Amino acid sequence: MAQHEEAHTGKGAAAGSQTLIEELYGASLERASVDHLTLSEWLDAAERWRILRALRETGGNRSEAARRLGIGRRTLYSKMERLAIAPGRLR
Fold first, then answer.
1. How large a percentage of the chain has pLDDT more than 90?
2. Residue 12's pLDDT is what?
3. Considering the entire predicted model, what is its pTM?
4. 48: Cβ–Cβ under 8 A, 6 or more apart, which residues?
C-alpha cells in the first residue's frame, strides 16, 4: 500500500530524484575538473552519466534503457547522438 501511495502521490519519485541529485553532486565534488563547468555542461554530463548507467544495466538494450529512463526510444537515440554516446560500445 505504501508503494502504491508513493507512486500515486509522486513522493517516491521525488525521493529518488533527491537521491540522484545528491549522488551526482557528491560525484562532481570528487572531481576538481568539474568546478569550471557551466550549469548546461554539468547537466549534460549528468544526463550522459545516467544514460550510460541505464545502458550498462540493460546490457546495451536501448529500448529497455529508454523505458527505464522514462523516455521514448527515439529521444534516447537523439540524446545519445547529442552526448556522443556510441551505441555499440556497451555490449
1. 51
2. 59
3. 0.64
4. 83, 85
